[in-house]
Design goal:
This protein is α+β, with helices and mostly antiparallel strands and about 475 residues long. Among the domains are: about 1-30 and about 415-465, no CATH class; about 155-195, no CATH class; about 275-340; about 375-410, no CATH class. It contains eleven helices and 29 strands. The radius of gyration is 63 Å and the shape is flat. The two termini are about 40 Å apart. Mean pLDDT is about 75; it is low at about 105-115.
Length: about 475
């Protein structure tokens, strides 16, 4: 491990440096010729520019550098200024102090820059005037709008009940009735009379003799009597129907509708009633289903249906009958109980066994075996006891808090680790190479120390040589 030495500037050295720097800035100290030249004051007059190293130098001080102004440069600048004054109609003195004079202007004088500006300003004032000022924009707009006034005119005409709506034209802002007939819209006479006789019809099928709506409605009313509909409720005694409705159409006597043409019959069947109901066991044998000894395959599977052993089981048997129906016998239907509700079965895994008593619909679950790893924390400690211990306070042996507290206490450093030292004799400051850490224990570093010593006055003086 080596020592690295660095220097620092203390208060004493800073005071020495401050005194030297102020003397150099205010010019009381000599300016080193080997350093870059810094001028702190610049003065000038009509003939020269003066540069001083001294701050706030006056005319009584001797300039470090004097730069004369060239006569050619002054003459060139004066010539350019004189040309500008002359172009504006003025005159300029040829010697210092230079005075510029412009002649007074009259209404007959030639236009100058000032006169042109005044005329432009007057014109702008006129343009910005209100609508009573002649030549203003506002008055021009007002006069143009007033010239657009026209007398009222009609845009629609009535010719014997036919209304024609014309368009509107505009020329230079003046509105007038339209002159292009293709934009006209005509409303038929119905629009003004409201009568059906004024509305014509287009009988493309030649089914009417009338030519307007009024006549067509009359023809339809006259022909409607030949399309009268009659309905009868015939006798149902001795039939299988609760009601029989017959529909006739024609011109026959209303008291004898049967004289008209029969166009339809509506038969209302008699209501069926449940004669009996039962829960039965359907068995399977050789592709057939049996209710006792009766083959009911067709009732359950339909005509031509095929049964399987899975179709056997409990069914709801409903027998229907129709009172006072001489030709309708009793009818039977079967409804599978399995179709009315889900059928649940038990099962067994390595840990739990579930059984279902179909006679009582009671479901029972039994624990078969549970691995020790799912219940016991250790051979002699249950999971509940282990959680209680782990959640205990720092005073509980082997709790999480107890183990953390013990680990933290073991991190204590036996003695202080120095990171800096001061030598009052040399005023040096020594910074240790750093600190180290191993498993949480802090110790001294193994790098290079750094020694910071003050800058000597001799070193500061040498900066101004």
């Amino acid at each position: 491990m080596s020592t690295v030495t660095k220097n620092y500037l203390d208060a004493s050295g800073l005071q020495a440096y401050d005194a030297l720097l102020k003397g150099w800035v205010n010019g009381s100290s000599n300016v080193p010729t080997s350093s870059p030249v810094i001028f702190r004051t610049i003065r000038y007059d009509n003939t020269n520019i003066y540069f001083y190293h001294k701050a706030e130098a006056t005319s009584s001080d001797t300039a470090d550098i004097t730069v004369p102004l060239s006569g050619a440069d002054v003459s060139k600048a004066l010539a350019e200024i004189t040309a500008i004054v002359t172009s504006l109609g003025g005159t300029m003195d040829t010697s210092s102090p230079y005075t510029v004079t412009f002649p007074s202007l009259t209404t007959t004088a030639k236009e100058t820059l000032v006169n042109a500006i005044n005329e432009l300003d007057s014109a702008i004032d006129t343009l910005n005037g209100d609508n009573t000022v002649i030549g203003s924009v506002a008055k021009s707009i007002k006069d143009a709008i007033e010239a657009l006034t026209v007398n009222e005119f009609a845009i629609a005409t009535n010719n014997n009940g036919v209304i024609t709506i014309h368009g509107i034209s505009e020329t230079n802002g003046v509105i007038a009735p339209g002159v292009n007939s293709i934009n006209d819209i005509e409303l038929v006479k119905l629009a003004t009379t409201g009568k059906a006789e004024d509305v014509s019809i287009d009988d493309t099928g030649s089914k009417l003799t009338a030519t307007n709506v009024e006549g067509a409605l009359s023809e339809l009313a006259d022909s409607a009597t030949a399309k009268t509909i009659y309905m009868t409720n015939d006798e149902t005694l001795g039939t299988d129907y609760a009601a029989i409705y017959k529909i006739y159409q024609g011109t026959g006597n209303t008291q004898f509708p049967q004289q008209n043409e029969l166009i339809g019959t509506i038969n209302i069947p008699k209501d069926q009633f449940v004669d009996s109901a039962a829960l039965v066991d359907i068995t399977y044998n050789d592709g057939h289903l049996y209710d006792g000894s009766v083959d009911v395959t067709e009732l359950i599977k339909g005509a031509g249906g095929t049964a399987t052993e899975a179709d056997a089981g409990k069914y709801v048997k409903l027998v229907f009958s129709v009172p006072d129906a001489p030709t309708i016998g009793k009818s039977t239907i079967y409804i599978s109980v399995k179709d009315l509700a889900h059928v649940y079965t038990g099962g067994t895994t390595a840990e739990i066994s579930v059984s279902i008593d179909t006679s009582t619909d009671v479901i029972t679950a039994s624990i078969v075996a549970v691995p020790a790893t799912k219940v016991n924390y250790t051979e002699f400690e249950t999971v509940g006891a282990a959680l209680t211990r782990l959640d205990g306070a720092a005073s509980v042996q082997n709790s999480v808090s107890n183990k953390i507290a013990t680990a933290i206490e073991g991190l204590d450093t036996q003695s202080d680790i120095p990171i800096a030292a001061y030598d009052s004799a040399t005023t040096n400051i020594t910074l240790s190479s750093g600190i180290s850490e191993a498993n949480g224990i802090i110790g001294a570093g193994t790098g290079d120390d750094i020694v910071i010593s003050p800058i000597s006055p001799t070193a500061i003086d040498s900066l101004f040589v």
